[in-house]
Amino acid sequence: MADVLVLGGTGRTGRGVADALARDGLQVVLVGRDGNRLREAAGGHGHRTLVAAGVREVADTVRAVRPAVVVNTVGPFTATAGPVVDACLAAGSDYVDLANDLAAVSRLLARHAEAERAGRTLVTGAGFGVAATEGVVVRLCRDGARTGRRAERVRVDMVPSLALQAGRLGDALAGTLVEGLPGVPGGRRFQGRRFAGGRLVAAPVGGAPRALVTPDGDRVVTASMPLGELLAAHRASGAPFVEAASSEVPTGALARIALPPAANLLAVGPLRRFAARRLAAVEFRARSAPRVSSWGHAHVRWQDGTSAEGWSRLPEAQAATVAVCAETTRRLARGEGRPGARTPVASFGPELITSVGGEFVDGPSRPDARVDVGGGRGRR
């Protein structure tokens, strides 16, 4: 019996997770569509490989192998997670994925009771963005609870520092970007979302821009983006008003004008498929990480009108994703998971961040008048 199946074993993240787990002595099997690429990815690490051409074959492989844990790195997760989770629950395997879109994350979390009945653990969002922001929210709300304060409003900001390898964006990531926006109730299919009065409501993609200065002194602007961090922050805080933002969202005047109609066009099936194909074909040049650290940020306003703010520091975003996913998988393989469906920090506490070399930094961002928010102003 294999300890871990890694789906998408030829990808950058899949290879990184597999190698990290193998160094701990876990038996890892790489699963993918191309046997030659799988053997190349396995390299000198001794990983076994299995070829599975599509999600049905992957699910059949899970049922046949019955691993302790399945790691899913293959998007779009709205298409791949459901059949793979079905197979995991049947095979008695725990499950981890890297989903960070509202549709996929919400669908996985909705299977909590089913996973509890099966005695299995499902973890979604096991990457940089969800874990980095969720960890800060949990710490702030724990501190608030000690003094009897309850969260009223929460904003989380994802500030990745991402090094790019030369190559194409690829079908899986393009599909995740297009199909995962946002696929949940509360507004039109390709609008943004936020929580208001405890319910998901429509919000503009790229709205509510906010200037931040990280504890390292880096100046960034974040804006609204309907990502998995939104659900994780809402569940962690219980706050009725929650919004999530990212520094990767364009915030200039032209972007604020263009994003809403562009999102509306995605509702047209042929245009959406065309957009996915074009995105998949985009070629990236290699680029070093723009900052020393990646950051998760959260600001919590309590019901008594006071507030708290904090950060989590992690390394380059891809390396952080590999580390979070590998550590989550490692703990599940050791039998430390609780039955049910959760996000990473909800599963293992904010100590998950420090266990992968991250750290928490208390206190607010440093105000700096030189940071341009493009004429917008976020809600505080």
Automatic annotation (TrEMBL):
This is Short subunit dehydrogenase-like uncharacterized protein. Pfam families: Sacchrp_dh_NADP. SUPFAM superfamilies: NAD(P)-binding Rossmann-fold domains (SSF51735). It comes from the Bacteria. PANTHER family: SACCHAROPINE DEHYDROGENASE. Residues 4-123 form the Saccharopine dehydrogenase NADP binding domain. Coiled coil: none annotated. InterPro entries: NAD(P)-bd_dom_sf, Sacchrp_dh_NADP-bd. It comes from Kineococcus aurantiacus. Residues 357-380 are annotated as: Disordered.
